[in-house]
Amino acid sequence: MKPQELSGIQPFEDRVWLASPTMHGDELRWMQDAYETNWMSTVGANINAIEEQLCEKLGCKHAVALSSGTAALHLAIKLAGVKPGQKVFCSDLTFDATVNPVVYEGGVPVFIDTERDTWNMDPNALARAFELHPDVRVVVVAHLYGVPAKMDAIRKIADANGAVIVEDAAESLGATYKGRQTGAFGDYNCISFNGNKIITGSAGGMFLTNNQADDRKVRKWATQAREAAPWYQHEELGYNYRMSNVIAGVVRGQIPHLEEHIAQKKAIYERYREGFKDLPVDMNPYDRENSEPNFWLSCLTIHEEAMCPMQRGERNYLYKPEPGKTCPHEILEALAAINAEGRPVWKPMHMQ
User: Least CB-packed of 195, 196, 247, 263 within 10 Å?
Assistant: First the structure.
């Protein structure tokens, strides 16, 4: 499928993006409210509202709105007590923002293999990893592309080894595992409102917990660790990680539409699955018996026998077209030729 062979297909006039936001109008209303009430900083009614709404949605007691999902993960790693040189078990097939906060604190990521069932952390590989590294006390689990990991098994293994779980639910807001919302399984939980997420603020993230002391600590750290003194007193390292009340207005306008967005994403996934059913490809899988993804992104893998030769370096790639076969980069070139965006799946972290 070379781009020149798509000459019969009219390119889209406007580029079709991989994950563009769906806006509804209330986002602008709440941003305008922040402007008109002059609450343009990192406090205000919008922030209070989304913290309450996400607690109710996910079933947790405390939520802290932050500048990004990465900021939430960083403060979660700090709360977990990661110290320089300490090994931390991490999902391997994930975006590097899952892992970067471990390195911020001087930790050493140890990547846990991925299972084919969900493309998430393999509980069997995690159990084996604890046999090899029994001193590890922190596990960072991501729910890839909105598909829940097998959290019951992962929790059981972590508990048996005295480890805490940092749950990276950046991609999976609204997804459930055994009827429970992702973002509520870990000891420390994080979600993202980045511009491409299923609920967006253009930016932003949130830390979620049932522990009031953790809630207070994160709020303090995120506000430059200012002490409760009548002057500017600082006794520990802090960060400028709080969310703007303006950004929170966008999130506030989006939250009521979460289920609608999930339904639309699922319809896209099912349309692809039906269209590809007779081709040598597989859609990104999930545990249909126990989980309901949010279908954030629809992905596919090509069967090995249907792959044409392809080599990828650190910056470039080459492939040799063959009749009846293809490869990811040939497909991506074909999409680009009709003004549509596609991307490769995440490159496993152990290969970077």
Answer: 263
